[in-house]
Structures are given as structure tokens and as C-alpha cells.
Amino acid sequence: MSSSKSLHTTFTDIILSKWLEIADHLPKKYQNSQIDNIETLWEIYTRQQGGIRTNLLNTEKHAWAYFFGFHLSNCWRLLNLLDRGLPPKHESFWQKSMDIIDLGAGTGSGTQTLHAWLKSHKYSGELRSTLVDSSKILLQKAKLINSELNSKTIRCLIQDYDLRANRPNTTQVYILSYVCNEITKDEKLSARLIHQFKNKIKSGDDFHIIILDSSHDATHRGMIHFRDALCDIGLKIQFPCPKSEECPIINRIHYRDRCFMNAHTTPPKKLLQTLKKYNRDSLNFDFMGFVFSSNQTQKAIHNKLIGQVGNEKYMECNGSTIEYTNIKNLDFVRGMDTPSPESKPKS
User: What domain range is 341 assigned to?
Assistant: First the structure.
């Protein structure tokens, strides 16, 4: 796992610099109109989650609003998830060529972030990326942000995209970033993806699945059911769960019992100025995320802090049961990693 300083450097020097290159050269009519559009999208995403239209971003106005208001925060969340969940440098993951398949790619934050993270860790293998989305307008933004990469875009619905067999000596990385709300509401689409992943396991393909989404109520239970279905076909969770079996939170009914993680940073000055320009002033976000692997063995993961209930009370999961615990030193819970017993402050 990288230090917070190196994550910050990766974000600033690779991801942010490319974003600013595009943002600073946009026509003024797009730059000046974004605050109201961002606020509109924010209202929709936070208050109307259950009824979001699938074609909501299929206009230039809303696509640019998403690029300005949400792209960077999605990158920061995913960067934290990758750093906690992908294999360490000594494993075979780093010796193979890599095909990245970004399903529901949107503005391309998933592909951009994974490339940036691999570059910061000096990955030297061949990288090829495929970005899949039904929106021509969003794919245009994804092309811009990933213009320097070996990538291609495919315009189609996720349900119309067939998962392909691995090329020789290649691992595949599937990114599902903020599309699970769409997947889990469509039983046929969800079943089709599960079936195709199951066939890839039977074929012996080496692949990883990275899932990132909101921790809000509207997406939470669907995400957990999808997670459990992936475990049922034999995929191993590399992060954050201690066990690759049915999630114990699924049978809990209290509205506060939600699994989430936290990604926090103090934005660099240049980014802070830009965020304030578009009515955003932080990169402190909760999210849900999972990293699965077809061939990696289950990591030895200790109990995880998976959600906050009140100011000092957290849920602690051991993979089979969930208990409540009091943690007074919030430095321990930035990544929802449970401190060792000897370092845990007393309640």
C-alpha cells in the first residue's frame, strides 16, 4: 500500500494535471455555466437515487457538469480502493500484460485512475484499455481524458457487450465504477454478467473485478447482493472483506447498518482553487468498493471497520458477524482498517 503522500502525488501529478489541461481549455460557455448544472446533478444523485434516468448524462450540458463536478472525486475514491485492494508488487499480476475493460466508463475516470496508479508503481507491461458506454457524448469526454493511452471506445449497452477470453499471458481488469445501480436493478443484466464471469473462471482466465459505487441506501443492498453472487461463483475478495462468503450485513435491517469506506485528503492549492470555482471544496468522500480476483488466494484480512454509527461508534466485521465498537482516535479509521488490538484506544 502506498503512503498517503505518494497517493496524493499520483493524483496531483497525473490525474489532476490531465483534468486541468482539458478544463482550462474549454469554451467559456461551458466553464461559466457549470455551477448550476453541478448543483442540479448533485441534488439528483443524492436525493433521487432510486429514480435516476439512465440517459441523464446524454447531453453536453450534463456531461460537462459531471466532468467538472464528479470526475475527480470518482478518481480519488478509486485511487484509494486500488491502493488497498490490488496485489503487491511481488505477485504475478505485475509480470503480465494487462487488458483493462471499463464497463459503463462514463467520462473515463476508472481507466484514467488505474493507468495512473500502475504508472506510479512503475508497471512496465503492455497496457490496453477498452471503454464501454452507451453514451457517445460521455465517450468523447473519456477519449479526451485518456488521449495519451493505448485505448479504444465501444459505444453499446453493458448488456450487449460480451466478455472476451484472455489473450495469452495476460490478466484482465474489469472496472465497474458507478454502474452497479444500473446493473443491480436489471436482473437479466446482473445474471448475464455473473454467468459470463463464471464461464471465465471455468476457462481458467486470470482476471480481477474492481467495483466502486455510492454508499447510499438506494445502492447499498443491491451492491451487497451482487457481491454475494460473485462470491458464490468462486471469486475471491481481495479487499475489503475478511471472507469470500455471504455478507453478514445483508440480514441487518437498521437503516444505519451500511458498509462503506472513507477516502480523505486535503486538496492541493491548485485543485482547491478549481474546486471552489465549481462550488466544491473537498475530497472527503464515503464510498463502497470491492476488489475480486479469479486466481489470487484470499488475503489474510483482519476485522474491518465498515461503517460509522454516531460520532465514535463503528461497525466491526469479521466476515461472519458484525459487532459495534467505539473508536475515539479517528486517525485509525480513515481507510476503515481496524487497528491492531494493542494500538486500539480504549473506549
Answer: 302-347
